[in-house]
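Notes from hallway chat w/ T.B., transcribed later so I don't forget. T.B. wanted the structure written out for a chain they're using in a teaching module, and asked if we could keep both sequence and structure tokens in one place. Agreed to drop them here.
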Amino acid sequence: VPEFYFSKIDKAKHPIYLKEDSKIYDIYKQKVLMEPSIHNYQVKKDIFGDGLGKHFKVTGMANDGTIEVLENKNSDSWMIGVQFHPELEDFNQILFDALITEARK
């Protein structure tokens, strides 16, 4: 991967504020992540209709109100959806490890 690509990633990093009562907080053990978002679209609450509050909870947001992390409200099923790009930072391997651990269960 060309070096200039990584400098663009650094410029795209922004804070994501995590809720402490969430699976993603349990993984990272941090209230704020600095993660890159390199796209121009976002999850909108209205696309879920009544399903957002019924089935999902927002557990991570950017300063501008962009939803960055969604989780399944059902505690029996493990689902974390992220809007940022965890695949671009080595630090995020813990998120992928958690996914693999849950999949093995």
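Follow-up for T.B.: The chain has a mean pLDDT of 84. Might be a good example for the class.
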